[in-house]
Specification:
It is a single chain. The chain has 2 domains: 102 residues, no CATH class; 311 residues, Alkaline Phosphatase, subunit A (3-Layer(aba) Sandwich). The protein contains 13 helices and 16 strands. It is globular and about 55 Å long.
Length: 436
Amino acid sequence: MMQSKRSNRRDFIRMGSIAGLGMADIMRMQHLYGSDDSSRSDINCIFLFIVGGMPHQDMWDLKPEAPSEIRGDFHKISTNVPGIQISDVIPQCSTVMDKMAILRSMTHDDSDHGRGFHVMMSGKKAGAGDFNGNQNNNQHPSIGSMVSHMGAPGVLPPYISLPNFLNSGGPSFLGPAHGPFVIDSDPAAPDFSVRDISLPTNVATRRGELRQMALRQINQLEDDLDKVGKQVKSFDTFYEKAFGLMSSKEAREAFDISKEPEPLRESYGMTSIGQCCLLARRMVEAGSRFVAVENGHWDTHRKNTYSLKELLCPAFDQAIPALLNDLEQRGMLEKTLVVVTTEFGRTPRINPLAGRDHWPNAFSIVMAGGGVQGGQVIGQTDKQGAEVTDRPITPEDMVATILYGLGIDHKKVLHTPLGRPVPTADGGNVVRELFA
């Protein structure tokens, strides 16, 4: 952390070991480095990132007339929207096609996983360097960080990431104030809990009260020491806010997925993606603006058909319709933009290991809710799903579209700490057909 305008971690530790420091630190930075833009929208976003590369030819953009080494082993099925067909490996998704829009013409030019993460998480092509090692490697702010920067902190953090920190999900030059609050735990686990939200029992009662009293005494003692006193008072403010969050019944319940009825939890699937989607719904319902969910292991270089049919698509196919139906039944779908995206697609031709390799030239993503007109397909690829033939859509366009959908100016220019102007969506254009 920078030394100016805020005390560093050693200062905090010197004042005493206080529960909730991580959350307090986040809230404090959000206040000190918050946006000057006070405009807000009531649209939130659940951003599902399918890590590894969704194979569009096997899920969203099948090519049944192509040779067998191109078309693969899956078949088209009808959806609940006449004229739109998707794969038989995701049959439950076919029942909510009226809520979804498929963007079949996504395209960029980088087949590296890490660099693909960066451009799809930020709308900015990655510069020099290795993007596969350090996850917090943003050269441009991630979408969630931009959303955090252009809003104001509420009861819950504006940007939440689960069940871990997403690669290239960091704030870059916007600073740690606009990084995600990471729920580094799988909500499908029986012992799931959120660090920094639930106070230990011995802190939540008398011990917690004593610590607050000690902190107030420190503040009083330091009143005569102007510089240190200001740091302590500032820390006190944000510790108290974090303590209030942890002490709030509403906040605790927002993170307590066990409060959901068992039949509803089971409808999402007792899987990582299923329970992450359910927890994400709880987060936006409680006021978080942008919740990013990672679902991994889709890098199907080997046994593509087996991996999709037996390991990956069943949980995905249960979770996505459950999320959309649940949001609709709660009257939340029009206020929640759901984005299902990935770093790139997979090669048209099946390789000798019965897998598909990396392919950024053409791929599909899905959007729903938040004013998106469902029941439509935008864009088109050629007969092999190899190249975009109509309405190319770039990651920059996707970012512009998400910001627009959340009521945020996608043309706003950000500034680095040195004052260098940086376009928010790097020249991207809104896919306005989605909102027609």
